[in-house]
Design brief:
The protein contains 4 helices and no strands. With 118 residues, the protein is mainly α. The protein has a single domain, classed as Up-down Bundle (Methane Monooxygenase Hydroxylase, Chain G, domain 1). The chain is flat. 0% of the residues are buried.
């Protein structure tokens, strides 16, 4: 019978196999027909004009990051809503603290202008 540490060791040995196997299989079995047209930079069907490596505003990144943070945290609130009638008083208090942390984070992002799309 395997102990807990042996399961962790097997997991650590096999975990790189699962993401690498599709990449290696695709490289070996996939079609390899590169040509200059396929290697061109593609942007929404429009041919690029000028340098394709330009700097984007950091604001776009921050806006996306704020969206992802609040999207993931809303996923954490869903199980609480599903089991609302089974919550203890302490769990309800924890939910209030969690939502307050979200509101403070939203207020901070709003005050810094991270939510302004310019």
């Amino acid at each position: 019978m395997l102990t807990d540490w042996q399961f962790i060791g097997i997991f650590l040995v096999l975990s790189p196999v699962f993401p690498l196997a599709p990449v290696v299989i695709n490289r070996l079995l996939g079609p390899q027909k590169p040509n200059p047209l396929k290697n061109q930079t593609y942007e929404c069907g429009i041919e690029t004009v000028g340098d394709t490596w330009i700097q984007f505003k950091v604001q776009y990144y921050i806006y996306a990051l704020v969206f992802v943070v609040f999207d993931v945290e809303s996923v954490f609130l869903f199980p609480i809503a599903a089991a609302y009638d089974q919550l203890t008083l302490f769990a309800a208090f924890e939910v209030v603290v969690f939502v307050l942390i979200l509101v403070v984070g939203l207020g901070y992002a709003w005050s810094k202008g991270a939510l302004e799309w310019t």
